[in-house]
Amino acid sequence: MLNRMKERGVEADFIVTTTTRPRRNYEVHGISYNFVSPTTFEEMIENNDLLEYAQVYGNWYGVPKRAVSQALERGSDAIIKVDIQGAVSIKNNLPGACFVFITPPKIAELPGRLKRRNTESETERELRLKTAGSEFEKLSVFDYIVLNPEGEIDAAVEDVLAIIRAEKLKIDRASKGLV
Predict the structure, then answer these.
(1) Domain of residue 116, residue span
(2) 74 falls within a domain
(3) CATH number of domain containing 66
């Protein structure tokens, strides 16, 4: 989804998550993720350099606070890919942020998609599937849901872009003295 948005030239800051997970062959440091050692990640936590962080599937993931604040200071949209834990943490730190849950139309599609993606072992896929089931129970954290049918990525991207446009058109009545 994010790669397609970048390919289409969506004007936004796509925030690169930091992780201790080993880099996969096709991934590029600084583009796919910022790959760091566990020691470096711990230092980032101690220095309060992360907007949010969590251990997921045995590895640490975090969102660099500075990248987000720089984007927002410039008036740019900051697009961040996080899991449920990350969304909850960011919502606590940035209550005005907009959260979009992206999912296949049917949870039954997920096992096949993960298997075809071929980036995890069978054990890791099983853990992801178990986690996915519990994530649907926490949909109330999100403002929107976008269905991403297989082979229809552009339609899903259009839905996300419509949400971004709609969010920019909202009127904050309290700040304008209308409430």
Answers:
(1) 2-169
(2) yes
(3) 3.40.50.300
Closest C-alpha to 78, from 139, 5, 4, 176: 5
> Hunting for tokens 């045995």 — which residue is that?
58
pLDDT for 174 beyond 60: no
Say what the pTM is.
0.82
Say if 153 falls within a structural domain. Answer: yes
Q: Domain total for the chain? A: 1
Asked whether residue 178 is domain-assigned, the answer is no
Please write the tens of the pLDDT for every residue from 42-64.
999 999 999 999 998 889 999 99
Asked whether residue 179 carries a pLDDT value surpassing 70, the answer given is no
Write out the E strands in the chain: 13-14, 18-19, 34-35, 50-56, 59-64, 78-79, 100-103, 144-147
Residue from 95, 99, 108, 86 nearest 146 by CA: 99
Residue 55 lies in a domain: yes
Residue of 46, 50, 51, 22 whose CA lies nearest to 36: 22
Give yes or no for residue 106 having a pLDDT over 80.
Answer: no
The pLDDT, as a whole number, for residue 83 is 87
